[in-house]
C-alpha cells in the first residue's frame, strides 16, 4: 500500500465515494490507485470549476462530502469560484490537491505555487501530507473538518512522493462532529421578545431551510410570526406539501419595503441580512429603523431543534400550514421566463432537484413553481455565476433516481459549459434549460442602480452576448447532449414535457 492507496481507503471508509477530478502529472498515483479501490466513483470534468461545483451539488444532496482531485495551485485556482459558492453553502467537500514531491518544491518548477495560501480563503481546514505515513490520519481529519459544523470545503495537499511511497497505515475512521442544541436561555429570550413585539420576523438560513426546519417554522406562522428565508439557500424544499416561507428579496430597497414595520428579527441558522453590494446613499444592513435583532440559533447550531423549542415555548399548534398543489395553465404565445416557469411547474415530476443559476430569469420561474409538485432547489449561495450546470452534475450523481434540472442564464452557462460533456459521458438524467437573452441582463440593471448611468456604445460591448449569438444547439450537440431551441411558449412546453418523459441529458435553449 502506498500513500495514494491509504488516502483512497480512508476516504471510502468514511463514506466519501465520489471523486470529481481534473488530474495532472502529480496526481497519477491517485489515479492509478482508483483501479484498486472500486468503491470510489471517478467522474472526469474538463474544467476544475465543473469539478468543484459538482462536488458542491453532490454534498448538498448526499449530506456527506465528495472529493475533488485538482492539479497543483493553478488547478485549485481554476476551481476557486465554485468553492467560494460551496463555502457559502457550507457544503462538505474534501479537495485533494496534488503537489510536487517534497524534495522538488525548492527548485521552483513552473507549476510551483503557494497552494496553502490559494486554498485557505475557501477552506475550513488546509494541511499538507508531507509523509506517506500521515496521509490516512490527515484524510480522516479532513473529512471530519468538512462537516464543521456548519461545514464547508477543506483542502488536503498531497505531495507526489507522499502518494507513491509505501506506508503501513490502514484506513482511519473520522469522528463526525455534532451540531450543539441552542441554549434554553436563547430560546427563552426569543420567546419573550416575540411576545413583546408588534411585527416579529424569523429569518431562516442554512439547516433551518430544510424540510424539518420549515415544518417547525410553519408552526410559528400561526402565532403571529412572519417567516422569511435568506435570498439564496443551499438546499430548500418547495411546492405542494411544503410551508411556503417568503424569500428575502435580492434588491436591498425591495427587502426594506418587505420588512417595513418589523420591530424584531430573530435569526435561525443565519445572520443579519445585508445588501449584496454597496450602492450610493443606500444602507448595507437590511433591517428597518427601530428593528431589534437576536439570535435563536447560529449557523453551527441545531436550528431545527431551536425552532421546535421556540414554537413549543410560544404554544404554537403542532402542525403549520403547507402549500397546496396548484399547477398553472399551459402557456401560449411569446416565450418569457414566466412561460418557462409555467411549463416547468406543469411537467416537473415529484422529487425533482432544481439547480438555480437563472439570475434575472429566476423571478418568473419562481413565481410559477410555488404550487408545483414537491421538489428541492439548490441556489447560487455565493453569487459566483457558473454553478448551475456543475451543481446538476453532482446532484445527479448523488441522486440517480431523481430528475435534475439545471436552469441557467446564458452568460452563467458559458462559465462552465464543459459540464455538458460530463453529463453526456456519465449519461446523467439532467435537463438543462438555457435562458438565452443574449445579454448579461443583471449588469444592465446594475448600471442604473449603482449610479453609473446608461450604457453607451463602449460600455454596451461588455454587457451584451450577441455578435455572434451563441448557437446553443450546435454547442450542446458538439459536447454530446441532445438539444433543441424554442422560441414560443407552446414549443417550449412540448419540448420540456418530452424531456421529463425520458431519461438522460437534454438541453433546451429558451429564446426569451
Q: Could you list some keywords that capture this structure?
A:
512 residues; alpha/beta; Rossmann fold; 3 domains; 7-stranded mixed beta sheet; 6-stranded parallel beta sheet; 21 helices
Structure commentary:
The chain has 512 residues and is α/β, with parallel strands linked by helices. The chain folds into three domains: 3-164, Thiamin diphosphate (ThDP)-binding fold, Pyr/PP domains (Rossmann fold, 3-Layer(aba) Sandwich), CATH 3.40.50.970; 184-313, Rossmann fold (3-Layer(aba) Sandwich), CATH 3.40.50; 337-510, Rossmann fold (3-Layer(aba) Sandwich), CATH 3.40.50.970. 36% of the residues lie in helices and 17% in strands. The chain has 21 helices and 18 strands. The strands form three sheets. Strands 9-14-13-15-16-18-17 form a seven-stranded mixed sheet, with helices on both faces. Strands 2-1-3-4-6-5 form a six-stranded parallel sheet, with helices on both faces. The radius of gyration is 24 Å and the shape is globular. The protein starts with a helix and ends with a strand.
